[in-house]
Amino acid sequence: MLPARRRILMATGTVACALATGYLMKQDSPYRNPNIATKPAIVSVQPASVEQIVTTEAMTDDKVLDSVQDITLTSALPDLPAPRRLPDAPLEGVNSGHGLLDGAVLPETPQDPEVPQLGCAVTATTAPAPMASVTLSVEAPCYGNQRISVHHSGLIFTEITDEHGQLSVTIPALSKNAVFVVDFGHGKGAVAMTQVAGLDLIDRVAVQWADRAGLQIHAREFGAGYGDTGHVWADATDAGQGTFVSLGRDDTFQPQLAEVYSFPRGTAGTAGTVALSIEAEVTQANCGREISAQSLERRDGNALRTRDLTLSIPGCDAAGDFLVLNNLVEDLKIAAK
Q1: Which of 14, 248, 326, 333 could join 22 in a cystine, given CB atoms 3.0 to 4.6 angstroms apart?
Q2: What span, in angstroms and rounded, lies between the C-alpha atoms of 104 and 95?
Q3: What is the pLDDT along the chain (337 residues), one digit of tens a residue?
Q4: Residue range of the domain that includes 151
Q5: What is the pTM of this model?
């Protein structure tokens, strides 16, 4: 049961391209997440340059790869111990150039390196997935349990490989000629590219941020209320026509996270509006802070559009409430097919 009473608080926020913004606080919200970290955090997103954000389908692979500095696109071999230098003096018991004498002892053989030089190639492969998505698989046998950042058309999120150096994640595509860069840092990484079918039939809205800002996308399809069928978000129990994906791990160093909502416009059986909002729980980690985020939108088969968002979170006395920003992303207008 949702609370019948809501209180309105004042807050400030800005968005590139100057959108009017409305705010609403939900007190005692049923969507409160008790697992959000409470330690202080500074949230920031670096300003995006033209090279870092894919805004047209004609974006070249080189420009996408430039968004990850100094990455090695081929196998990344680990540093090995320096070879042990053999003694200059003749060894006792060695008959200079004529083989070993009885009782001769060879110099100690260096131990094998902890990480072998062979078999450490980092590879990334793709496979098609439903709703114009791509399953990205990473094989990095020498980098188990390691932080990895994934880049795709301006979307960035952090993950962790398993103990065998493997990672599999399904990513909603943002461009037809999709390029995915996986980066372990220090020049270690790989690139995968693929063609994405059916993307023009999907409307897609993503929001990404750094650290533990507690942002969420909520989509309420065709008049659905909070908690109803058609209310699509991270913890929805009843599916709507659209789909929701969370990307990234918040237990990594300097985490980068994203949420993506997708609606199959090309096969919609209902005409109407999908109301979209960005919401943020007020916690001890973000209260009283100004946080930065970014939206990435692809609608009606048009090119990807990005906007930088700046949100001012109320003070810590509002902890536990939710800040609702109704107009930072435009609602989807759906025509029945």
Answers
A1: 326
A2: 9
A3: 443 333 333 344 455 432 323 333 444 333 333 333 333 333 333 333 333 333 334 344 445 455 444 444 433 333 444 445 445 545 444 444 444 445 555 555 545 445 455 678 999 999 999 999 999 999 999 999 999 999 999 999 999 999 999 999 999 999 999 999 999 998 899 999 999 999 999 999 999 999 878 899 999 999 999 999 999 999 998 778 999 999 999 999 999 999 999 999 988 878 899 999 999 889 988 899 888 999 999 999 999 999 998 888 899 999 989 888 877 899 999 887 7
A4: 61-74+119-195
A5: 0.70
Work out the number of other CB atoms within 10 angstroms of the CB of residue 137.
Answer: 15
Tokens of 226: 């909070």
Structure tokens at 24: 């609403």
Count of domains observed in the chain: 2
Please give the radius of gyration of the chain, using alpha carbons only, rounded to the nearest integer.
Answer: 26
- Closest CA relative to residue 332, chosen from 253, 271, 245: 271
Are 137 and 223 contained in the same domain?
Answer: no
